[in-house]
Predict the 3D structure of the following.
Amino acid sequence: MSELLDEKHLALISKHKLKREKELICAYENLTNYDVDTLIQYCYDAKDNEQAHLLLASLFTGRSIMALLDVSTAVDEFVAGEFGVLTSSISHPKVPESSNSKQVERPANSSPYVFLSSSILRSVQNARDRKFEDYKTKLKNLVSEINKKNNARLTLGRIQRYLAKEAKDLNISQAEVGWISNTPLKDHAGSSYLSMSSGDLARKHYTFINRLLESAGKAPFSLEVLLTSPDAAKMMGSNRGLSNDDLKVSFVNIRESIDASRASLPTTLWQLYNDYTHFTVSLLMVNTGHRPTRDPFGSLRNFDLNREVVWVQDKKAREEASRLVPLNTLSELQIRYYLSFLKDFSGIVKYSHPGEAEKLKQSLSGEAPLFRLRNTRGLTFYSASTVRDHCSSPIPGSSNWHRHWIRQHLASQSHVDVSAVDAFMAHENLLDESFSRFSTLETLELRKVSNAIEQQLQKLDVNALEVTL
C-alpha cells in the first residue's frame, strides 16, 4: 500500500513540476537529460528506422527536418567505415583579387560538412523522396506519442535547438555549431572567419554525440577509422588566413627590411620608421584581433601598460564591438620598445623635420594617433593602403588575415573558453554582453585567449623586436 502511495505521490510531484516549468517559458524550452535519453532510447528501439533516424539526425546536427530533406545539401552514405558525409550549403567568400596588393596562393577550402552514421544518412536520403508536409506531420505525431508514453516534452524545434544550447559546456563554439547545423554565415560573424579540418570538427562534434549516447545507455561511436581517412584531413571554411609558414616568413621579411634600413642610415631614416611601425602594428593586431582600420588602436591613452590592457574601438558602426583586450607579454614588450624608439626618433628629426617631430611628440603624449606613416608630404594616417604604398614588406593576403588566422588557431585550443573567443574577437551575437556591467566573463578567460595566441607565435619564432638608434 505504501508503495502505491509513493508512486501516486511521485506522479503528482512530476505533474506539478511540469506545470511550473511550463510557466517558466525559458526553462521549459530546454530539454532535460531525461527527455533526450528517452528520445534516443526510443529511436534505437524503433521499428520504423527511417523516422527514428530523421529525429536522431536533427538532434545530432541541429538541423530542422526541412533542412535535412533539402536536396541542395548532398549525402554520401559511405566514406569511412560506418560513416558518411552530410554537406552544407555554406559558401565562404574568396580572397578578393586586387592589383594593388600581393596575394598568397592558398588552396580553396571546401564548404563545411559533417560525418554521420551511414544508416542515418541512408534514411535521410530515402526520406527526400517523400512529400515534406506529410512527413513532417508524421514526425510530429510520433513525437507526441513519445511524450504521452514517457511524460516527456519533446518537440521538433526543441530537438533541433538542443545542440546550440549544449555546445558551450562541451567547448564547441557557436561558429562551429553554425557549420554543423548549416546556419547562414551572417547569423554568426565567427563562422565566416573559421577554418579547420573536417577531422578536428568531427572530434568536437562527436564529443557531443557520444555523450548523448552514453547518457542513454547506448554504445558510443568509434572515430578511429574516420580520423585516419583522407576525408578527415580536408580543410574547410575560410582560406583568407595565412598559414603558419606564411605568417613566419612575413614577419621575417619585415625584420629584414628593418635591418636593411638600419644598414643604410641616415638616408633611410624614414623608411626605418615606416617599417618598424608596420612591424609593431602587425604584431599588435595578430595578438589582439584588432580589425584592420584607419589609425588602429587610436592614441596612447587607449593603452594601460600597468594593467596590460588596451581599449579596442575598431567598428564605429557598432559601439558594442568596443572592448577591453588583454595585452600578453609579447604585445606589452613590443609597445614599450616602440615607445622608446619613437622618443629617440623624434629627438633625432627635431631639427631636420621639426613639423614631424612635433607630431610625434603629440603621439607620445596621447594627443594624436600613436601609429602613423610618412609619405613624401609628411606624416599620414596608418591604413592598409598606406602600408602598401610606403612600407617595404607589406604582409600579403587580405587586410584581415590575422583575424582568420586567430580563429583557425583557437579552434584547436580546448583550454580556451569559446565564449571568451567570441568576446575577444567581437563576434558575439545580439544580446551577448560579455563587457556589460552585469557580465560574469572574467578577464582571466580573455587572457587565456591572448596567451594562446602568444604561445603559437613564439613557436613560429615571431617575437618582439627592439630597434635602437
